[in-house]
UniProtKB/TrEMBL annotation:
One record GO biological process: glycerol-3-phosphate metabolic process
EF-hand domain location: 620-655, 656-691
PROSITE patterns to which the protein is assigned, alphabetical: EF_HAND_1 (PS00018), EF_HAND_2 (PS50222), FAD_G3PDH_2 (PS00978)
Subcellular location: Mitochondrion
A molecular-function term among this protein's GO annotations: calcium ion binding
Pathway field: Polyol metabolism; glycerol degradation
Listed EC numbers: 1.1.5.3
Hydrolase in keyword set: no
Family listed: Belongs to the FAD-dependent glycerol-3-phosphate dehydrogenase family.
The encoding gene: GPD2
Name of this chain's protein: Glycerol-3-phosphate dehydrogenase, mitochondrial
Source species of the chain: Oryzias latipes (Japanese rice fish)
Length: 724
């Protein structure tokens, strides 16, 4: 099998006067804009007004006599291939066995970048291939920021410097990054003094800080970006279906030569179990970490080309980082790179890099979570206590690295991609990175068209606006507030998630019955996601509650407890819309809770406080906490119940509903007997002290009640003086 290294050779513009360079830049941008306008004008959009339903898409897949291209895989690369193919006027189909972006594409660092570390390797090792990969990625970064402006934006990233000699070294490297970007440089990098760096990033460790360098890369909402690509393909007429798996490949045999050729796939609707054939002149394997599984369906003897690597990320509260400034740790204790970035008003930190087995359900490990926390502590001020209990969510993504199957060192692997065509005609696109999905798709289709003799037009995806991008403006949210009476935070969220399609979501929002906001009931109070998004998610092919909490909204990635609280409401809305039975509702709820528990780090979070947790408190602390406990346990029973807590709260004129109190105590009731024993309370306070647990509602409630009782004294709950 012959492999073709998939690297675009992009001309390097350099040298000459500033005026000359500016002239070339303007000319290139003008030509690009003209090509963009021309491409958009030529393309027909069959489903501009309304997307076909999933049932209609499945019917198209099974009823169409033959497609030109069948793409297997609904991640960024697969969706990119489908969009590229359909806009070249090829009859296109795409199937994904789970949901769009359910794998690696939704579990990234959320950066659109060229790869600073890859450029460093390219320079240090004089590696032209790596250099070209970085240059290609920087070109694609600019394109992605242009075609989905609602989902992406430039982000300044600070590189703190703690040794004087590193300042010119890193500055030269970052300036080279700007230079390689050329006309696609987002903003020029710059050096900061120590005082200015601390002003912009006050959480930074001050000791021995020399200064900092700030450079710019892009950031995006990865799952929504992936979905935008897939929905754009559907708008242009591609038959796309999630929850549709390939059972086996179809092959035809040439009667004269006896040579077998892949001519489609036997597919199964995962939801109903119905099987059907999808015939196609060309089948493209874009299955990411599962690349070798499909290749072995074609030929069992084929050698593996994918070596998977797991990358874990964590999400911690937004106060750990400034609103609009990221941080790069270029050399961690084991030589890896850690990013520390603001994202969706939270802070994301990662990633790790370790060999792993391919699985559809990767689980973040406690060791990886603690490694990231340790590295974060090294860069933040000692005044900022980095607590394990502040980890709101954690996930693991499997990178589909392309390498020699005998290699064991994943850290030295460059995320280049390869396009291969098997003897039977199966086209495989493997490796690569999120940022370069479009150019990877272009090269894959070029190879497929040539190998299969397809009649197609040139690629049109450079500058082609994605779902919601056309008509978006930074001030669009103001119209949402004014026209529909949405909260400003909700309107901003809808505009940055759906772009111009935000109006379609707003039209579905229910009246709140309040003075303000007029419409838009939130799923959970602290996040701007509203109930109407669940209804709109179904139009975007969401089939399960997991699809909604993980990929249509990002609640599961931002806060697992908040996602867990929102689940009953989400399931109820979906059940009403999709006609689910009570059994189906229970099944969906259980599956979503299992997803949060294992894949989103809820398990790791909940295991910070268990029946076997040690009590690590000194004598004075034990005395203080026992005294606090006995203010609630008036009868010295050795335990407290909701009745005890309610009595104390009423005495200080605080009222909490019985269901809420049950939830609060249940978080600490480790043996689940409906009461909190003194030992359980001491275990909680020990875990809080060690930072393993944060934001414990019971701990904060009891502390506040104790302080109020001590300052005000007990207040009688009996009515006095015949008052009303």
């Amino acid at each position: 099998m012959a492999f073709r290294k998939a690297l675009r050779r992009t001309a390097i513009v350099g040298g000459g006067t500033v005026a000359a360079a500016f002239g070339v830049s303007q000319l290139m941008e003008y030509r690009r804009a003209q090509a963009h306008v021309s491409a958009e004008a030529e393309l027909k959009v069959p489903y501009a007004d309304e997307l076909p339903t999933r049932a209609a898409q499945l019917a198209a897949l099974s009823d169409t006599e033959e497609f030109d291209v069948l793409v297997v895989g609904g991640g960024a690369t697969g969706a990119g291939c489908a969009l590229d193919a359909v806009t070249r006027n090829l009859k296109t189909a795409l199937v994904e066995r789970s949901d769009f972006s359910s794998g690696t594409s939704s579990r990234s660092t959320k950066l659109i970048h060229g790869g600073v570390r890859y450029l460093q390797k390219a320079i240090m090792k004089l590696d032209y291939e790596q250099y070209m990969m970085v240059k290609e990625a920087l070109h694609e970064r600019a394109n992605l920021l242009e075609i989905a402006p609602h989902l992406s934006a430039p982000l300044p990233i600070m590189l703190p410097v703690y040794k004087w000699w590193q300042l010119p070294y890193y500055w030269a490297g970052i300036k080279m990054y700007d230079l390689v970007a050329g006309i696609h440089c987002l903003k020029s990098s710059y050096i900061l003094s120590k005082s200015k760096a601390l002003e912009l990033f006050p959480m930074l460790k001050k000791d021995k800080l020399v200064g900092a360098i700030v450079y710019y890369d892009g950031q995006h909402n990865d799952a929504r970006m992936n979905l935008a690509i897939a929905l754009s393909a559907a708008r242009y007429g591609a038959a796309v279906a999630n929850y549709t798996e390939v059972v086996h490949l179809l092959k035809s045999k040439d009667p004269q030569t006896g040579r077998e050729a892949v001519c489609g796939a036997r597919c199964r609707d995962v939801i109903t179990g119905r099987e059907f054939d999808v015939k196609a002149k060309c089948v493209i394997n874009a299955t990411g970490p599962f690349t070798d599984s499909l290749r072995k369906m074609d030929n069992q003897e084929t050698a593996n080309i994918c070596q998977p690597s797991a990358g874990v990320h964590i999400v911690i509260p937004g106060y750990y980082s400034p609103d609009n400034m990221g941080l790069l740790d270029p050399a961690t204790s084991d030589g890896r790179v850690i990013f520390f970035l603001p994202w969706e008003k939270m802070t994301i930190a990662g990633t790790t890099d370790s060999p792993t087995k391919v699985t559809a359900h990767p689980i973040p490990g406690e060791d990886d979570i603690n490694f990231i926390l340790t590295e974060v502590r090294n860069y933040l001020s000692p005044d900022v206590e980095v607590r394990r209990g502040d980890v709101l969510a954690a996930w693991s993504g499997i990178r589909p690295l392309v390498t020699d199957p005998n290699s064991k060192d994943t850290q030295s692997i460059c995320r280049n991609h390869i396009v291969s065509i098997s003897d039977s005609g199966l086209v495989t696109i493997a490796g690569g990175k999120w940022t370069t999905y479009r150019s990877m798709a272009e090269e894959t289709l070029d190879a497929a068209i040539k190998a299969h003799g397809l009649i197609a037009e040139p690629c049109k995806t450079v500058g082609l606006m994605l779902e919601g991008g056309k008509g978006w403006a930074p001030t669009l949210y103001i119209r949402l507030v004014q026209d529909y009476g949405l909260e400003q935070e909700v309107a901003q969220h809808l505009a940055s998630t759906y772009g111009a399609k935000a109006f379609d979501v707003a039209k579905m929002a229910q009246v709140t019955g309040q003075r303000w906001p007029i419409v838009g009931k939130r799923l959970v109070s602290e996040f701007p996601y509203i109930e109407a998004e669940v209804l709109y998610a179904i139009k975007e092919y969401a089939c399960t509650a997991i699809d909604v909490i993980a990929r249509r909204t990002r609640l599961g990635f931002l806060n697992v407890q908040a996602a867990d609280e929102a689940l009953p409401c989400i399931v109820q809305i979906m059940a009403k819309e999709l006609g689910w039975s009570q059994e189906k509702k229970t099944e969906e709820l259980d599956a979503a809770k299992k997803f949060l528990y294992h894949e989103m780090g809820y398990r790791s979070r909940s295991e910070q406080l268990t029946k076997t947790s040690e009590i690590n408190l000194d004598y004075q602390e034990v005395v203080r906490y026992k005294k606090r406990f006995h203010k609630f346990d008036k009868e010295s029973k050795g335990f407290i119940t909701t009745v005890d807590v309610q009595r104390v709260l009423e005495s200080i004129n605080v009222h909490i509903g019985e269901n809420a109190l049950h939830e609060i105590l249940n978080e600490v009731d480790l043996n689940k007997n409906g009461q909190v024993e003194i030992d359980e309370f001491l275990q909680l306070m020990s875990a809080v002290k060690k930072g393993q647990v944060s934001d414990s509602r019971l701990a904060i409630l009891m502390k506040t009640a104790e302080e109020t009782l001590e300052t005000r004294g007990p207040v009688s709950v009996d009515r006095s003086g015949g008052g009303v």
